[in-house]
Design a protein that fits this description.
CATH superfamily of the largest domain in chain B: ATP-grasp fold, B domain
Oligomer: heterodimer
CATH class of the largest domain in chain B: Alpha Beta
Largest sheet of chain B: 6 strands, antiparallel
Strand content of chain A: 15-25%
Largest sheet of chain A: 7 strands, mixed
Number of strands of chain B: 18
Strand order of the largest sheet of chain A: 3-4-2-1-5-6-7
Number of strands of chain A: 14
Number of helices of chain A: 9
Order of helices and strands of chain A: EHEEEHEHEHEEEEHEHEHEHEH
Strand content of chain B: 25-35%
CATH topology of the largest domain in chain B: D-amino Acid Aminotransferase, Chain A, domain 1
Number of domains of chain B: 3
Radius of gyration of chain B: 26 Å
Distance between the termini of chain B: 37 Å
Structural class of chain A: alpha/beta
Shape of chain B: elongated
Structural class of chain B: alpha+beta
Helix content of chain A: 25-40%
Radius of gyration of chain A: 18 Å
Helix content of chain B: 25-40%
C-alpha cells in the first residue's frame, strides 16, 4: 500500500515530446510506472519509445483509461493543460512546471478542487511509491527503498537528500512527495497527513518544511489534534533574510511571518521530533522506528 | 519586482484614483521649482526607495515654502537611506516625490494579496490605517476586514461596496472607496502582483486620496507585462543578484565568508543552516537549479570568485537531474578561465559520480572531495576560520 499512486495507476504525460517530458516519461517507465500514453497536440500517432502520443487528454483517457497525468508544459501555457486534464476526467495531476504565474495556478486549482480532483504542485518533484514501483515525477528512483515511512516536503533536492539518508539507514519509504515550492499549490501537508493516517503501511511520517507561509504551523495543529503516528520534521531556512525569495517562489519571510523559528516551535509544541542537523534525519528516524 | 511609490501612484491615477498633486524630481533645483508650482502652504518631499519605514529613517520631510526646500532635497537625494528593512548598507535615493500636504480626517488601510491557504485573491481593509498591517493585525485584529475573491468571477460590485461601507458610513465617501477598492484589485490581477497596497488611503474633507502606495509585481508573471521593465530601478537591487538572475541562477547575498553553490532551493537553504550550525557564516545563497548546465555552474562559480569576501567555496550537489560530470566541468571551466586559487570543498552525490570525481582529481585544482555532508560542512567552517 501507499498513498496517491500505486501499481494500478495508469499514467500519461502532457508535454511528452518535449525534452524533459520525454526524458522523465522514460525514467518513470523504467522505474516501473505504467506509462500508458502522452499528449502533444499535433503529434497523435507518434510514439515515444513505445508510449503512444495523442492530440488531446480526452482522447488519451478514452484510449488508455489513464487516471494520472504528469505535466511538463512551459509556465506561460500551463493553466490550460491542467483544466484539460480535469475536463478529461484525470483523478490526480502532478504538475512539475516551475514559474507559473500564481494567479493562473489559483484559477486552475479552483477548478481542480471544484471537480473533486487532486493536484500535486506546481513546482514539485512529483510523487513516488517505492513498494508499488510507481513513480510520477523527476526524482531519481534509485535512492528509494520500499518500506513504511511517508515523506512530505516542499522541496526537491532536499527531499532526495533526506530519502537517501533514510535508505542508507535501512529505512524504506511508502510514498514520498513534494508539495511544490510555489506560494499556491494543490495538496497540503494536512491533505497528505490524512492519507498517511489512513494508510496501514505507513508507520511514521517525515515532514520537510521551509520558510514562507503557514502550512507547517497548520500541519502542527492538525498533528496535535488528529494524527496518531510519529512525525519527524526538518525545517529549512533559519538563515534566510526577511523579504527575499530563497529560490522557491513560496520561500519568503513576509512582514515577520513564515520564519523557520515559528514553524519549529509550532511543530515541537505538537509533539513532533524536529531535527536541527539535516544530516541526522536518517539516523534519528531509524531510532524512532525501534 | 518592486515599484516605487510614484510608479504605483501612476497606476492608480490611470485608474482614476485620486492622489495628492505632485511630481517626481531628480535634482534639488527641480524639487524647488516643483514645490513652488504646487502653490500649497506645505509640501512633502518623499525619498523614492524600495523600502518601508522611510519616515523614521529621514527620507520624508514636510516643509513650508519659507523653508530651504532645495537644501533639504539635496540632503535626501544624496543619501543612502538606511531603514529597518534595507540592512546596514541602505538604498540610494535617486528620485524624490514632491507633493502637496493635504489635511487628513481619516486614515484607512487597503491591501490586496494572494492568500496561500485558500488560493484566493484577498482584499484586506481597516478603518484604522497609517500603521503597518502586521502591527494592525496584532493590535486591532477585529478592525481588519477581509474579502476573499472568487478565482473565476473576480471581484463583484457588491463585495467592493460592502467593504467600502464597513470603512465609512458616509455615502459619498463609500462610493469613492468602492471605486478605489475595485481599481486596486484590477491593478493586482492586471499586473500579476504579489502585493498592491494603499496605506494610508485618506479621507480629506469630502475626498478620498491615496497618500502612499506600494505595488510589487510577481517575477513569475513579469513575462506578461514587458512594459513594466521600463520601471525597473536597478539601483535598488543588488547588482550581483540581478546578474545572477540573468544567468537563471538564484543568488542572494549574505554577510559571511563561505561561498555556497547548491542545486535546489530547499537543499541550498538547508546547507546554509548546516554551516551556521557548525559555527560558520555563509556569504551567499546560490541555487543553480535542479538541472543546471555546465555553463550555469561556471557562471555560479564565477560569481563566488568575484566576491572578495569569500574565503572558501562549498559545493553541495545532490544530482538528480544534474549530472556530477557536468558540474565538475563547469567548476573547472570557471577556475581555468580565471586562474584563481580558492579552496573548494565539494560534496557531490548522484548520477555519474565517478566521472565527476575523476575530472576533479585530474584537474589538479585545490578541490577537496568529501563524501559525508556533515563532515564536509565541518571542514568548510574550519577552512574559513583558518584562512
Amino acid at each position: 500500500m501507499a498513498i496517491l499512486i500505486d501499481r494500478t495507476s495508469r499514467v500519461i504525460c502532457q508535454g511528452i515530446t518535449g525534452k524533459n517530458g520525454t526524458f522523465h516519461s522514460l525514467a518513470c517507465k523504467e522505474y516501473g510506472t505504467n506509462m500508458v500514453g502522452g499528449v502533444t497536440p499535433g503529434k497523435e500517432g507518434a510514439t515515444v519509445d513505445g508510449i503512444p502520443v495523442f492530440n488531446t487528454v480526452w482522447k488519451a483517457v478514452q484510449e488508455t483509461g489513464a487516471d494520472v497525468s504528469l505535466i511538463f508544459i512551459p509556465a506561460a501555457h500551463a493553466k490550460d493543460p491542467i483544466l484539460e486534464a480535469v475536463d478529461a476526467g484525470i483523478r490526480l495531476i502532478v504538475c512539475i512546471t516551475e514559474g507559473i504565474p500564481p494567479l493562473d495556478t489559483a484559477q486552475a486549482l479552483h477548478v481542480v478542487r471544484q471537480e473533486g480532483r487532486l493536484m500535486v504542485g506546481p513546482n514539485t518533484p512529483g510523487v513516488i511509491s517505492p513498494p508499488e514501483k510507481c513513480k510520477v515525477g523527476i526524482m531519481p528512483g534509485y535512492i528509494h527503498k520500499p518500506g513504511h515511512v511517508g515523506v512530505i516536503s516542499r522541496s526537491g533536492t532536499l527531499t532526495y537528500e533526506v530519502v537517501d539518508q533514510l535508505t542508507r539507514n535501512g529505512v524504506g519509504q511508502s510514498t514520498c512527495l513534494g508539495l511544490g515550492g510555489d506560494p499556491v499549490v494543490g495538496l497540503s501537508f494536512i491533505d497528505c497527513l490524512k492519507m498517511f493516517r489512513d494508510d496501514p503501511e505507513t508507520e511514521l511520517v517525515v515532514l520537510i518544511g521551509e520558510i514562507g507561509g503557514s502550512a507547517e504551523e497548520q500541519a502542527a495543529q492538525f498533528i496535535k489534534a488528529e494524527f496518531n503516528k510519529p512525525v519527524a520534521a526538518y525545517i529549512a531556512g533559519r538563515l534566510a533574510p526577511p523579504g527575499k525569495r530563497m529560490g522557491h517562489a513560496g520561500a519568503i519571510i513576509d512582514g515577520g511571518s513564515g520564519t523557520a523559528q515559528g514553524k519549529i516551535e509550532a511543530l515541537t509544541d505538537a509533539g513532533v521530533t524536529v531535527i536541527e542537523n539535516l544530516t541526522q534525519v536518517g539516523s534519528v528516524v531509524r531510532e524512532m522506528l525501534k | 519586482m518592486n515599484l516605487h511609490e510614484y510608479q504605483a501612484k501612476e497606476l492608480l491615477a490611470q485608474k482614476k484614483v485620486a492622489i495628492p498633486r505632485g511630481s517626481v524630481c531628480y535634482d534639488p533645483l527641480e524639487a524647488l521649482i516643483a514645490a513652488r508650482q504646487l502653490k500649497s502652504e506645505k509640501v512633502v518631499l518623499k525619498a523614492q526607495v524600495h523600502s518601508g519605514g522611510r519616515g523614521k529613517a529621514g527620507g520624508v520631510a514636510v516643509l513650508s515654502l519659507d523653508d530651504d526646500v532645495r537644501g533639504k532635497a539635496a540632503e535626501i537625494l544624496g543619501k543612502r537611506l538606511v531603514t529597518n528593512q534595507t540592512g546596514p548598507q541602505g538604498k540610494p535615493v535617486s528620485a524624490l516625490l514632491v507633493e502637496e500636504v493635504v489635511p487628513i480626517d481619516q486614515e484607512i488601510y487597503l491591501g490586496v494579496i494572494l492568500d496561500r491557504g485558500s488560493g484566493r485573491v484577498t482584499i484586506m481593509a481597516s478603518p484604522e490605517g497609517g500603521m503597518e498591517i502586521e502591527t494592525l493585525a496584532k493590535e486591532a485584529p477585529d478592525k481588519i476586514f477581509t474579502v476573499p475573491v472568487h478565482p473565476l468571477t473576480g471581484l463583484t460590485a457588491y463585495q467592493a461596496r460592502g467593504l467600502a461601507y464597513s470603512l465609512s458610513s458616509n455615502k459619498g465617501i463609500a462610493s469613492q472607496l468602492t471605486h478605489v477598492i475595485t481599481a486596486l484589485y484590477q491593478i493586482f490581477v492586471g499586473y500579476d502582483c504579489t502585493l498592491a497596497e494603499i496605506n494610508p488611503l485618506i479621507v480629506s474633507r469630502d475626498k478620498v486620496l491615496a497618500l502612499d502606495a506600494k505595488v510589487n509585481v510577481d517575477d513569475n508573471g513579469l513575462f506578461r507585462h514587458p512594459e513594466m521593465e521600463r520601471w525597473r530601478d536597478r539601483s535598488q537591487e543588488d547588482p550581483v543578484e540581478l546578474a545572477a538572475r540573468k544567468d537563471e541562477l538564484s543568488y542572494i547575498k549574505l554577510d559571511g565568508n563561505i561561498g555556497c553553490i547548491v542545486n535546489g532551493a530547499g537543499l541550498a537553504m538547508a546547507t546554509l543552516d548546516l554551516i551556521s550550525l557548525h559555527g560558520g557564516s555563509p556569504a551567499n545563497f546560490l541555487d543553480v537549479g535542479g538541472g543546471a548546465s555546465e555553463q550555469g555552474v561556471a557562471d555560479a562559480m564565477n560569481i563566488l570568485l568575484d566576491d572578495n569576501r569569500v574565503r572558501v567555496v562549498f559545493i553541495n550537489i545532490f544530482g538528480g537531474i544534474l549530472r556530477c560530470d557536468v558540474l565538475a566541468r563547469g567548476v573547472i571551466k570557471a577556475f581555468r578561465g580565471r586562474g584563481v586559487e580558492l579552496p573548494v570543498i565539494a560534496r557531490i552525490e548522484g548520477t555519474n559520480l565517478e566521472e565527476g570525481h575523476k575530472l576533479f582529481r585530474e584537474s589538479g585544482l585545490p578541490i577537496d572531495m568529501v563524501s559525508s555532508l556533515d563532515e564536509a560542512a565541518k571542514r568548510v567552517v574550519e577552512r574559513a576560520q583558518s584562512a
